[in-house]
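User: I'm putting together notes for a lab meeting next week and I want to include a structural view of one of the chains we've been expressing. I don't have a solved structure, so I'd like a prediction I can at least talk through. The sequence is below, exactly as it appears in our construct file.
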Amino acid sequence: MAELASMIPLAGGQYNWVALLAPSSSTKFLSYLTGWITMIAWQACLAGSAFLGGTMIQGLLVLNNDNYVPERWHGTLLFYAIILFSLIINTYLARLLPKIEGMVLIIHVAGFVLMQQLIWVGKTIPDQDTMLASIGLNGSLGFAIVVATLFCLGDEQQALESPTGFPFIQVFLNATRSNAGASAMVSVIIIALTFAAVGSLATASRMLWAFAREQGLPGSSVLARVESRTLLPLYAIGLSTLISLALALINIGSTKAFNALTSLVVVSFYSSFALAAAVLLHRRLSRTSPELVYGPFNMGRAGVPVIVLSLVYSVIGIFFSCWPPTAQVDAVTMNWVVVVFGGALVFSMVFWVVHGRKVYTGPRWETSPEGSVMEGEARKV
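Assistant: Thanks for the context. Below is the predicted structure for the 381-residue chain, given as structure tokens.
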């Protein structure tokens, strides 16, 4: 994906890449399909971030208040609070969004470093080089904190049966031996998830607006409007908000059913990136005109095997993300991602056949000829 982004640095991402790289006979349809899949992914990402943040707040209530009895609708209301907060940031405070995201990035990195140290301090490890080696070898805070958590996991069954609903909260409690300490650590994650929802709403709404501008959605003429005073796609922001509010109602009936959104994010993103990787692989192997012009990052001869491996990895991830968590499946334990993802794709295909193929314009390029990413490629303005 880094090679694609280097070649084609356009905001539309996957469906821009597919539109430029796919064979001319199928470029319109494949970019349309990729646009729908990417849009589904971002809508699911928005709802998933808010859901995790809201239910983690519930987990803290369980941890700190023995008299609190969690209900699924409580989680839905907390979900709504995070979505509405994201809506306010993306509308009334939209001008401050870049500064807010910069501040949250600092909190995010500092918070993970702090949590990593606290978890390790909570357990005596004879060889302290283990922690340093894990950080130095893997080079990422995410992997380092996973290693630290596994070392300090304690009774894994106790963690899995945590009344908070989140095993890692029990791990934090075991490490700090303090409700206050565990709550502070969880709060860092909740803040990160809340602002992840803010960013997801910004991206999901812009993706929806861009796709509507190209007539890829029902009601595109409305969704593509930009409010003249604020220059914001308010209709797209509003629809993205309403989609999340509607999806949150699933949690009232079944939390496990709503958890399928996590799988939906994986399936959708992997599918969109797999399509982009597949058309790039086709262009590399077919050597059709116009000739590919690479950006600053070029994998060279390693490109083809890396793309093949990425496609294999994506297919495996998509396949297993569609399976239910248990062998005995009923309406509650069923992984509904197949129904949701498949239903959305069927709807998109029906819209394509009935109306979309007649009006869908494909991505609009707004780069100068000097900024062309491929030699001889036509540009639409």
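A couple of points you could mention at the meeting. The first helix runs from residue 2 to 7. The radius of gyration is 23 Å.

User: Perfect, that's what I needed.
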